């Protein structure tokens, strides 16, 4: 781990995000990583379960930035780029590693990683802590996921250990967070856009209350996805899922 960054490893825990939150509430100053060999109650976005077989990476970084909740807009995209860096470092073809809004990383147009960011604010308005949960499919991947999945092993034929993946991910993410300028979202958005999946193309978008087809245009200055509907109107999405048109049935 980078200098000054702590780490806890559990063979099995309920959820690395939940364990990191417990440590934060108990007063751990951070930054620190929680890494698990297996999760018994892994969570994805919107309360979804996360398949957590031994051999994949399940890790959460807890840290305490002195910023406001609204300053976090760039963080999901920074994390996605760091995960992309990590896959490439272990041999994934650079041209095939893409970022899918809002927080997935694809290899060969199949999901290889997801990110779950949670935070808690102080009464004064500043954040008390932020937790970045990351799952990387190093060896296993579900064959029944709503969006097709893959693993680093499946793509490269090489098995990477959890320890090695955690070490490289920590270095890549630390470097990007260290370089993060909170008031400069545009440079992060520009880089993420270069490696994004689906921009300029029609995709099926699903929110909690509707499903529709639209052309993906890019990111707004607060991280929303801008999509153009068939009637020409533009819509901003702050939460939802994106699928290829042919896989949306």
Automatic annotation (TrEMBL):
Top-rank taxon: Bacteria
InterPro entries with a match to the protein in the record: aa-tRNA-synth_II/BPL/LPL (IPR045864), Biotin_CoA_COase_ligase (IPR004408), BPL_C (IPR003142), BPL_LPL_catalytic (IPR004143), Transcriptional_repressor_C (IPR008988)
Keyword Nucleotide-binding found: yes
Entries under Pfam families matching the protein: BPL_C, BPL_LplA_LipB
This protein's GO CC annotations: cytoplasm
Start and end residues of each BPL/LPL catalytic domain: 6-181
Reactions the enzyme catalyzes: biotin + L-lysyl-[protein] + ATP = N(6)-biotinyl-L-lysyl-[protein] + AMP + diphosphate + H(+)
A GO MF label: ATP binding
PANTHER family: BIOTIN PROTEIN LIGASE, BIOTIN--PROTEIN LIGASE
The protein's name: biotin--[biotin carboxyl-carrier protein] ligase
Native source organism of the sequence: Kordiimonas lacus
């Amino acid at each position: 781990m980078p200098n000054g960054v702590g780490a806890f490893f559990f063979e099995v825990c309920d959820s690395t995000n939940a364990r990191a939150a417990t440590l934060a509430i108990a007063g751990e100053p951070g930054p620190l990583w929680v890494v698990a060999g297996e999760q018994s109650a892994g969570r994805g976005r919107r309360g979804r379960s996360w398949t957590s077989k031994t051999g994949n990476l399940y890790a959460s970084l807890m840290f305490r930035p002195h910023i406001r909740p609204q300053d976090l807009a760039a963080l999901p995209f920074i994390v996605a780029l760091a995960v992309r860096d990590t896959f490439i470092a272990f041999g994934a073809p650079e041209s095939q590693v893409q970022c899918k809004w809002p927080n997935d990383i694809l290899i060969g147009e199949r999901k290889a990683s997801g990110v779950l960011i949670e935070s808690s604010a102080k009464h004064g308005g500043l954040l008390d802590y932020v937790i970045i949960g990351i799952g990387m499919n190093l060896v296993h991947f579900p064959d029944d996921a709503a969006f097709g999945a893959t693993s680093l092993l499946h793509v490269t034929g090489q098995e990477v250990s959890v320890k090695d993946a955690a070490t490289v991910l920590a270095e890549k993410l630390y470097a990007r967070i260290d370089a993060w300028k909170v008031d400069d979202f545009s440079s992060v958005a520009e880089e993420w856009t270069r490696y994004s999946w689906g921009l300029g193309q029609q995709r099926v978008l699903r929110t909690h209350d509707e499903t529709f087809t639209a052309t993906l245009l890019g990111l707004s200055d607060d991280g929303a996805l801008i999509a153009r509907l068939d009637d020409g109107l533009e819509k901003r999405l702050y939460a939802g899922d994106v699928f290829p048109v042919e896989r949306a049935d």
